[in-house]
Design goal:
The chain is α+β, with helices and mostly antiparallel strands and 486 residues long. 16% of the residues lie in helices and 41% in strands. It contains 6 helices and 31 strands. α1 runs antiparallel to α6 (445-485). It is elongated and about 140 Å long.
């Protein structure tokens, strides 16, 4: 009787549990919310993940981040590294022109030309050494150009030519060579320059020579066919591309007492992917060599790591793992204060930083010092579907990741297109529940547990009924047998 009873009970309970669907997630299941407002008409938007998300998220990978519309419908979104940004500036630079006259001037060598430059590389004069035909005036052989010292992060991508006064029509093919030292020349472009003016004084012109942008100071122009002329002006089209750093976020942490008088502990939100660190010393004229690291629970510390790190200090509760050795300082000199800046480091995510001075003085000069962490926030790309306003919610323990690959949220978009996406506006953070962890059965398991108990009780009742019916039948059959024997 016990085996059929247990089997039936398990089958009924399992069926009830399987039939109970997991309730859908709701914004109020999370601790914090930020309203997002996309620009009008924007189907796809992006935003730098707000600092408050990193401060209150309970997952190092931001697995507890969700996006809902006003009806509670979840929206598709992706978390990705911020796209690389740059600033492009275009300038026009007038080049200094030095005609080269004479005979026997080679295209690829300057053996027949005397060039004088200043101490700063400025081109002063160009004189041909070769003689000319007796009785004939030396002819123009080429032009040497000086663009000046190259600006940092700048490249020249084109030259624009202006005809001398009185010249209306012109046609020639020219070769452009460039150099940084007036000794080695690289041929980079050949083009046909032409100007054609009609009777209505309208001019059709091909007055540019374009090439792959590159940095150079000097250029040489020679003719492959057509009459050489001294142009009235030659302007270089200069392009400067400057990388723009992605937006940064920082947090300042106050320390608490550690295991020794010198040690300080700094509680850190687990989601912060810190890649820079600094210490703002409370006292002036202080130089402090320190070791920064983290604690690992001793029972969880792998034995292999302990063997590979013999310098790790083991205690009864936790192992200290040193990550950085550096010196923070704050020194006054001649009325000016010199302080240590941010120290770059590989990304570290931890719930607590540990600071240990490398000397033990019995006092703690960094008692009120502040530890500052910096990081680059991720970029959140989302589809503004459904009904606004939209809620970015976060702060829930045990949540599973909901982010999608960028290729599924913005399929076919290039980096330039992603960078040009309209930026949504984020409101102030709002607490939906207490920030303190709430002890409850996650993901609606309480409802399923109640359904399971109900199914078990129902199964007990059903089996009890069948057992009563079975006993009754057995008693009736026993009574009939006794009567027949008498």
């Amino acid at each position: 009787m016990k085996s059929p009873f247990l089997l039936c009970t398990c089958l009924i309970a399992g069926g009830a549990l399987a039939a109970t669907p997991a309730p859908p997630e709701r914004p109020q299941d999370y601790g914090w919310s930020i309203a997002l407002t996309p620009q009008p008409g924007a189907g796809l938007s992006r935003i730098s993940v707000p600092t408050d998300v990193y401060l209150h998220a309970r997952s190092a990978s931001l697995a507890d981040v969700r996006l809902f519309d006003s009806t509670g419908k979840p929206l598709a979104f992706a978390l990705t590294a911020p796209p690389a940004q740059s600033r492009t500036q275009r300038d026009t630079l007038a080049m200094r022109i030095f005609p080269v006259t004479g005979k026997n001037i080679g295209y690829y060598e300057l053996d027949n030309v005397d060039i004088r430059t200043g101490n700063d590389g400025r081109l002063l004069s160009v004189t041909a050494r070769g003689g000319s035909t007796p009785g004939a005036a030396p002819g123009l052989q080429g032009l040497i150009l000086d663009a000046g010292p190259p600006a940092k992060d700048s490249r020249i991508g084109a030259l624009h030519f202006t005809l001398p006064p009185g010249t209306d029509n012109y046609n020639a093919q020219v070769l452009l060579e460039v150099s940084d030292d007036l000794k080695q020349w690289d041929a980079i472009a050949t083009t046909t320059l032409n100007w054609l003016r009609n009777s209505d004084t309208q001019t059709l012109a091909n007055d540019r020579i374009e090439f792959a942008p590159r940095a150079f100071r000097y250029a040489r122009l020679s003719w492959q066919y057509g009459d050489p002329i001294t142009f009235a002006g030659i302007a270089a089209q200069q392009v400067s591309v400057t990388a723009v750093a992605a937006p940064r976020a920082t947090i300042a942490l106050k320390g608490t007492a550690g295991k020794s008088v010198d040690e300080r502990l700094y509680a850190t939100p687990i989601a912060i992917p810190a890649d820079s660190i600094s210490l703002q010393l409370a006292e002036g004229n202080t130089s402090m060599p320190v070791t920064l690291g983290v604690y690992h629970v001793a029972s969880e510390a792998p034995r292999q790591r302990q063997r590979l790190r013999p310098q790790a200090r083991s205690t009864q509760v936790a192992d200290f793992e040193p990550l950085l050795n550096t010196t923070f300082y704050r020194i006054n000199m001649d009325g000016k204060e010199r302080v240590s800046g941010d120290l770059a480091m590989p990304v570290v995510q931890t719930a607590q930083w540990v600071l240990r001075p490398q000397y033990h003085s019995g006092t703690n000069p960094n008692l009120n010092s502040v530890l500052r962490l910096g990081w680059t926030p991720a970029s959140l790309v989302f589809l503004a579907s459904g009904k606004g306003p939209y809620q970015l919610v976060f702060g829930r323990s045990g949540a599973t990741p909901a982010t999608l690959p960028l290729s599924q949220v913005a399929p076919g978009f290039t980096q330039e297109e992603l960078l040009a996406l309209p930026v949504a506006t984020a409101a102030r953070v709002v607490a939906l529940t207490s920030d303190a962890p709430i002890e409850k059965t996650p993901d609606g398991a309480g409802l399923r547990l109640a359904a399971l108990w109900a199914a078990l009780l129902l199964g007990v009742g059903v089996l009890g009924f069948f057992a009563w019916r079975l006993l009754s039948q057995m008693k009736e059959e026993q009574g009939s047998t006794d009567k027949q024997e008498h």
